[in-house]
Please model this.
Amino acid sequence: MIVRSERTAVTKNPLFATKQQPFPPWCLFLAGLLLGTRSEITQWLRTYAEALLVSLYATGVTIYLLYSAYTRRRTNKFTQSAKRATKAVTTNTSSAPTTSIAATTEEDDALKTPSTTQQTQPPIDLTGTYQLISNQGFEEFLAVQGVPWALRRAANAARPIHRITQTAQQLTIQIQGIIESETTYIINGPPVETNVRGRIFEDVVEYMEDNHGIRVRKKALTEDYDVTVERVLSEDKQEIVLTSTAFFRDGRPSVSSVQLFRRV
Model:
């Protein structure tokens, strides 16, 4: 059975401008694709103005991402405040006898299952917000997957944010950057179908053998390669090393990239 992720990049990144996003983000992709697919423009950039235009393009992408993050954070604050106010009203209107009965029921359940907390404790907890601070081999990793030159350069210069929410059985990864997505997995559960730049994958998630991290195995349904993504948490729990590896079914050597994320 294949579970389709209910949340996709479309809900987080609409095709048309909104109050939070004054202009549609597909404009950035269109500009990058036009630059990367015209041979005359590509040759001129490589000869004369590659460094300048790539820097300007990366700066524009960074400013857009910062503005989007700012507006999204402000919206989330208002939403959280409203939720807290609603929760407070609900709590105040609840009756004392009902609270006593609920507390008694919880105490009885705790006596019956004393080891429930231990059973639901994950071997490693990646929950947190992390921002990319360095790349190694990322542009080459994108190149072997057919990503256009201009988009590779912009992606290599960007500093996306990964928000991870994890329990013993479930993992949610929200990515905010040039390509935005949010996917929820059941750890050691059924495959989840994901879409990355038009490429369809079946993802399964598992704990790594040493329980120091989590591995996502991505089986491509439309391409001739598969990808593994491993996230390993540092001993001080402040950094995640993300290693992505593309394996080719025709026997070509695999290609890997290493990215370092720091908790924010």
Notes: The mean pLDDT is 78. Helices lie at 9-12, 26-37, 39-93, 96-112, 116-120, 138-143, 149-157. Residues 39-93 form the longest helix (55 residues).
